Amino acid sequence: MSRAKRPNTPSPNETATKSPRSGPIGGDISAIVEGFGTRFRIPVLVSRHSQTSVMGLFALVNGVLSIALMSMAAVATGQAFIFPSLGPTAFLLFYTPTLPAACPRNTIFGHAIGVAAGYLALVIFGLTEAAPALATEVTWPRVGAAAVSLGLTSGFMVWLKVPHPPAGATTLIVSLGILKTPAQLTVLMIAVVLMVVQGMVINRLAGIDYPTWAPKLS
């Protein structure tokens, strides 16, 4: 008499490592779409929240709106409220908001480390008054500044336990001379804080347990 097959049930370790909110393409975007649909009573978002086409459309609209707000601030003030590394930060905040890298502490401290490391590299290599590398040419001092800034940013994010990958782009923006004056760097950090506020509002509206500061302890 043959023995009955046991059902394939996940082990406790497998159950613990799989996020209950993960959609078909990972991240929390499926839960965010469903949360918005529930809060604003949009049945199509509730019923189709896990469809890739719906999630992609939501990501498209959310990305346009979030960066458009920062761009309008840049136009209105004439300041650098928009810069390349803000894009990947926005994606983290709205795609994987529950990851430690997306929490307010890591986002703000990560970019601050990138800014400080980039400016320190400019000082070390005598490039604070030099034209941006992309407008002229890449010189050996610029190579040194870029390398040192990225190394310092990577090291300090690990030492201080505040990893935020987009900060690696921020430090290169500074060390390459694209944004380098104290006024520009101050505006850059204000833009980061405003993006965090946007992320907090959108995720909380969707019912996502986005942290107020540090990552949630599991």
UniProtKB/TrEMBL annotation:
Signal peptide: none annotated. The chain crosses the membrane at residues 57-83, 108-128, 140-160, 172-197. The lineage of its organism: Bacteria, Bacillati, Actinomycetota, Acidimicrobiia, Acidimicrobiales. The keyword Transmembrane helix applies. This is Putative transmembrane protein. The keyword Membrane applies. Residues 1-26 are annotated as: Disordered. InterPro entries: HPP, TM_HPP. Residues 57-211 form the HPP transmembrane region domain. Residues 11-20 have a biased composition (Polar residues). Pfam families: TM_HPP. It comes from Candidatus Neomicrothrix parvicella RN1. Keywords: Membrane, Transmembrane, Transmembrane helix.
